Amino acid sequence: MPSSSVDLQAAQRGKELFMQRCSACHAIESGQQSPERAAPNLRAIYGSSIKRMTINAQTQEVRRETVHWDDKKLDDYLKNPKMNQAGKTIVFEPVTKDQDRADLIAYLKSVKGKS
């Protein structure tokens, strides 16, 4: 179920941004496959944990880490999508406006757990 702390107006703006910026590669509907098969369905991304390969910016060492997709991690990622991505091709431009990132995160929160 969506969190009761989700701002519904922000989530609606986030949905519009998602459709404009994200839906070419990512699905959001339950059970729907992403248009780009390598891009994950983002319905359950908020609050989830994944293992991924990262690159240490100072040493260039590649390592595996667990990432928990919370507000801060999503905000950081949307602001700088190329950071620490080992072996991934990231094709979207950073979301530069704080409000746009907050709205996208509110939308991802609002769809989490809906069927």
Write down the CATH class. Answer: Mainly Alpha
Distance between the termini: 9 Å
- CATH superfamily membership: Cytochrome c-like domain
Strand content: 5-15%
Shape: globular
Overall SS class: alpha+beta
Estimated helix fraction = 25-40%
Number of domains: 1
- Which whole number gives the mean pLDDT? 86
Given as residue ranges, the uncertain stretches (5+ residues, pLDDT < 50) are none
Question: Could you spell the SSE succession in H and E letters?
Answer: HEEHH
Total beta-strand segments: 2
Rg calc: 14 Å
Quote the CATH topology.
Cytochrome Bc1 Complex, Chain D, domain 2
Please explain how this structure is put together.
The mean pLDDT is 86. The chain has helices at residues 8-21, 71-79, 98-111; strands at 49-55, 62-68. Strand 1 and strand 2 form a beta hairpin. The protein is globular. With 115 residues, the protein is an alpha+beta fold.
Topology readout:
Layout lengths: L7 H14 L27 E7 L6 E7 L2 H9 L18 H14 L4
Antiparallel strand pairs: 1-2
Summarize this entry quickly.
The protein has 115 residues and is of the alpha+beta class. Helix content is 32%, strand content 12%. A hairpin with a 6-residue loop joins strand 1 (49-55) and strand 2.
